[in-house]
Amino acid sequence: MAVIVLRIGHRPQRDLRVTTHVGLAARAFGADGMLLTSRDRNVKESIEKVTRSWGGRFTIEDGVNLKETVRRWKEDGGKIVHLTMYGINLPDALPEIKLEEDLMIIVGAGKVPPYIYRVADWNVAVGNQPHSEVAALAVFLDRFKREGGIDPLTREYPHAKRIIPQVHGKRVINWDAQV
Ligand code: SAM
User: Residues of the chain whose pLDDT is less than 50?
Assistant: First the structure.
């Protein structure tokens, strides 16, 4: 079962920081990769740099064609969740979303085209209040993964830098010091 985030409507420069955070949250909360409909080497390189240091197999592809990507995903049997404050609230939608199916999670930036609302199998709200794509994605992934018995907050990555949690201060061990 693959979980992929599709970030649409990214405006290079204006959305650089938020889209990078979408990717970092996707990786940290257990998604397998992110697709970006715009081209942005800066986003791609920042996330790849984090993955090289902190581990995992998170993939990132920019410049994908929206309709083509969605069409192929559905043809291959994958399901689509679109995160929107107008959707069915997450606690009500979650029981219907099957853990064993490939899942694409779409998050917007500015105004989201009506096509996305139609093509989604579920339009899901993380609470019916406006907030942020980063917050919505993190909460969705946390609840979704925990439904499948995985707690994203305790995940460990082999062959990577590792933090030793501290009450005060910082302690980080590099991979080569762990072997
Ligand atoms: N005005 C935009 C629209 O028409 O949907 C919303 C823009 S909002 C700043 C950016 C993204 O954050 C949305 O596309 C959605 O993916 C996500 N988002 C914001 N609030 C949300 C909520 N309560 N539940 C789910 N997703 C949310």
Answer: none
Ligand 1 neighbour 90 (Cβ under 6 A)? no
Two tokens at 124? 């899901």
In a domain, 58, yes or no: yes
Provide the number of structural domains found in the chain. Answer: 1
Q: Which domain holds residue 83?
A: 3-153
Please work out whether the CB of residue 114 comes within 6 Å of at least one atom of ligand 1: no
Q: Using CA positions, which residue lies closest to atom 21 of ligand 1?
A: 85
Q: Ligand 1 centroid to 171 CA: how many Å?
A: 36
Q: Is 9 close to ligand 1, i.e. is its CB under 6 Å away?
A: no
Tokens of 44: 């791609």
Question: pLDDT tens for residues 129-169?
Answer: 999 999 999 999 999 999 999 999 999 998 999 999 999 99
**Residue with CA at minimum distance from ligand 1 atom 22:** 85
- Residue 154: CB partners within 8 Å, gap ≥ 6? none
If residue 103 lies in a helix (H) or strand (E), which one and from where to where?
A: strand 103-107
Query: In CATH, what number is assigned to the domain containing residue 94?
Result: 3.40.1280.10
